[in-house]
Amino acid sequence: MKLTVIQRSVIGLGAALLLELLLGFWLLRTIESSLNAGRMVAHSNDVLVRLSNLSTKLNDAERESRDYLMTGSQDDWKLIEQSFAGETGLQMQLRDMVVDNPPQVQRIAELDPLIKRFIETVDSIKTATPERQRDLSNSVMLQNNGIRQRTRDLRDEERRLMDRRLESQTANTQRTMLFATLGTLLALVLVGGSGYLLIGEVRERTQAERTLLDQKRLLESILNCMSDGVVVADLAGQLTIFNPAAEQTLGLGMVDAAVPDWSERYGFYQPDQETLFPSERLPLARAIRGESVDDVEILVRNSARLKGAWLRMSGRPLLDDHDNPCGGVVVFRDISERKRAEDERFRVAAESAPNGFVMINRDGHIVLVNSQMERLFGYEHTELVGQSVELLVPEAFQRSHPRLRDAFFAAPAARAMGKGRDLQGRRKDGSEFPVEIGLTPIQTGEGLLVIGAVVDITERKRAELETQKLNEQLERRVAERTSQLAAANEELEAFSYSVSHDLRAPLRAMNGFAKILEEDFGARLEDGSRRYLGLIQKNAERMGSLIDDLLAFSRLNRQTLTRSLVDPAALAREVFDVLEAERKGRNVALDLGQLPPCRADYNLLRQVFVNLLSNAIKFTRSRTAARIEIGSSNGEGQPTFFVRDNGVGFDMRYADKLFRVFQRLHRVEDYEGTGVGLAIVQRIVVRHGGRIWAESVLEQGTTFYFTLSGDTPSG
Q1: Which of 671, 670, 690, 668 is nearest to 681 (CA)?
Q2: Which of 43-47, 425-429, 485-489, 507-511 comes out lowest in average pLDDT?
Q3: Which terminus of the chain has a smaller tally of CB atoms within 10 A, N or C?
């Protein structure tokens, strides 16, 4: 987290204060240590002084004892006694003063018996013989030398101890001065840095406050110049900004009211102009909760705006620097004039409408009608406006209509009136006529109103009756035609049976007898007679083929179409191989291209390829090198199959006869056939929902094209 300048300054000052406190504590401890060191130095000095006093007393005793030996004077002896006076106390003081120094204590302990023997030796001089006194005097001198040596060791040790204490005191004093100086400098640096930061922060804040003040003045100037009302509130609902346009528009200024009381205090109403607008749903209240609200129309009516005014409000939440909600703002404007202009345009539009137009209020009274409404119901304008709408309702429904009207106002929604029922309107003369009515609720400056668009459907009803009669007649005709078609189908079945049985028998008899005559009497017949017999057989066989093709053609309409997935390329190859006998001894080349799979009746599609390939083989008979091409192309969103040859072709002027039954474009003497094959192909293609056509050039060849509905399988 980034620290602010104030936070950094406080931390710096706190660090400086803490440093000063630590430094003061350390100085206190150092001073205390220095004082202790000073006391120990003074203590060592006292020890040296007492050692010096002790040496002086002993030296005086030694000197006085020699004087006594020389003079024998009692005054000298008294001086010896005075030298020994207080010596014991001095020894005890020395022992107490070095009690914290074990080596010195040991030296004092060693000195005590020496001093004791020294005193005893001096005391024995007084009573000793002269010869003995001289020996004792020498002993005193020797003992005092030993004592001086021990005393000298004590003094040297104490001086060394005092020197160390003086050095320690001096070092502590120097460290104290150094750290005090450094700590003070560091504290001054911290205080100075914090002060510098604070000065900069104060300068920036002063500048920011000046900028903020300028912006506030600019904002106030903008708000004062705005024609739209602007109101701002904090999260607690306390109003903080209320520009002059807001006060002028609402009629009231800033009031001290909680959010739940806003609608009541300012007089905010819903579009019905009677129900207070819920305060918690006001745009400003919703904006405080973080919602964005646009174009809410509210009526304001209070003691300052008795006639009321329509407002359009939009609200937005206010966010702080961290994008957290901190309040809300609402902007609104008076749209009363526009609402009145819209109402006027609405009245003009209603008057120019081609249908009847009526507007009613919640009480069911007519507020507005157009001239078409007056014409439909036969009333004058003044006879309708202000009257109950039940005036236009048939008497049978006048009692129940108010209940239905109230139900619609309770849940208004645009819809057709009386859906599923025939509605009637009642004219001024009491006559009734069929109508259609569409209901549309609208909010206006006068509250919730309902528009009724009334259409006279008398002519439509009359047309519907006529259509119904025509439909009934058509159904009768369809039934009759169906019956006739059924009878025709039965006759066709009978005809097919007759052709299949009754016509085939005579043909077989004629052909059979002609063969018998040729076999039994052919040798005795003249050439002309044999030719006639041959013609009889040939025509009988042709007639049989014609009957077979005719029966096949007639059965196509009755044959069930069974679609399946077919591979046209494989089927075409199979048919070409089956027709090998027809191209035996000829050079016929097949160019089989890519053919997409299709959904078709396998047997019927096979018949298509049989007939088309048979034709191609037949009409290329005059070609030394015949060529037949089978392929497909994409056109009109579906594949188009084609069979192309380089045969004799035909004249395109007669292309319309190509697919007719028994129609031939070449002589039977040149090219055999019954004239039914292409008609069968067309019938099969049409049954598949496709179409077939041909393109040809004489002596260059012919191409047959055909399509099949749904020929490319899906998925």
Answers
A1: 690
A2: 485-489
A3: C
DSSP secondary structure letters along 324-373: -EEEEEEEEEE-HHHHHHHHHHHHHHHHT-SSEEEEE-TTSBEEEE-HHH
Measured from the Cβ of residue 145, the count of other Cβ atoms closer than 10 Å reads 11
CA gap 47, 54 in Å, rounded: 10
Amino acid at 165: R
Strand residue runs (E) in 520-625 = 563-566, 588-592, 598-601
Q: What is the pLDDT of residue 670?
A: 55
Question: In angstroms, what CA-CA distances link 661 with 294, 505, 540, 553, 562?
Answer: 77, 24, 19, 9, 25
Q: Quick one: tokens of 439?
A: 């209901």
The whole-angstrom separation of Cα 680 and Cα 611 is 8
Confidence of residue 218 (pLDDT cuts 50, 70, 90): confident
Cα–Cα distance for residue pair 388/358, rounded to 1 Å? 12
Spatial separation of the C-alpha atoms in residues 501 and 494, rounded to whole Å = 10
Separation of alpha carbons 169 and 171, rounded Å = 5
Residues 6+ apart with CB under 8 A from 490: none
CA dist., res. 417 & res. 401, Å (int): 12
Please give the structure tokens belonging to residue 62: 């030694």
Q: How far apart are CA 690 and CA 602, in angstroms?
A: 15
Q: Percent helix, strand and coil across the chain, each rounded to 5?
A: 60, 15, 25
**Residue 117 Cα distances to 20, 56, 76, 84, 148, angstroms:** 61, 17, 20, 13, 14
Token pair for residue 662? 């028994």
Provide the pLDDT for residue 87.
56
**CB burial of residue 206 (10 Å; 0-12, 13-18, 19+):** exposed
What is the SS3 assignment for 554-619?
A: HHCCCCCCCEEEECHHHHHHHHHHHHHHHHCCCCEEEEECCCCCEEEEHHHHHHHHHHHHHHHHHH
Give the pLDDT confidence of 423-481 residue by residue, as tens digits. 899 999 999 999 999 898 987 656 788 988 899 888 888 998 899 999 989 988 888 88
User: What phi and psi values does residue 433 have, to the nearest 5 degrees?
Assistant: -145, 150
Distance between CA atoms of residues 402 and 410, nearest Å: 12
Find where tokens 């009302």 sit. 229
CA atoms within 13 A on the CB side of 16: 18
pTM, entire model: 0.37
SS3 category, 470 = helix
Contact status, residue 492 vs residue 553, Cβ threshold 8 Å: no
Q: Beta strand 598-601 with 626-635: parallel, antiparallel or unpaired?
A: unpaired
pLDDT in tens, 491-538: 655 665 565 555 666 767 677 777 787 777 777 778 777 777 777 776
Per-residue confidence (pLDDT) for residue 662, from 0 to 100: 58
pLDDT of residue 592: 94
> Contact 301/274 with Cβ under 8 angstroms?
no
C-alpha 83/C-alpha 64 separation (Å) is 9
Both tokens of 180, joined, read 């005090």
Among 678, 543, 691, residue whose Cα is nearest residue 618? 678
Residues with Cβ within 8 Å of residue 491, at least 6 apart in sequence: none
- H/E run at residue 478: helix 458-497
Nearest to 446 by CA among 368, 383, 334: 368
For residue 271, the one-letter residue type is P
Cα separation, 122 vs 139, in Å, equals 9
User: 10 Å Cβ neighbour count for 613?
Assistant: 23
388 DSSP assignment: B
Element (H, E) at 132: helix 130-225
Of the candidates 612, 684, 683, 693, which has an alpha carbon nearest to the alpha carbon of residue 652? 693
- In angstroms, rounded to a whole number, what is the distance separating the alpha carbons of residues 136 and 139? 5
Q: Are 328 and 318 in contact (CB under 8 A)?
A: yes
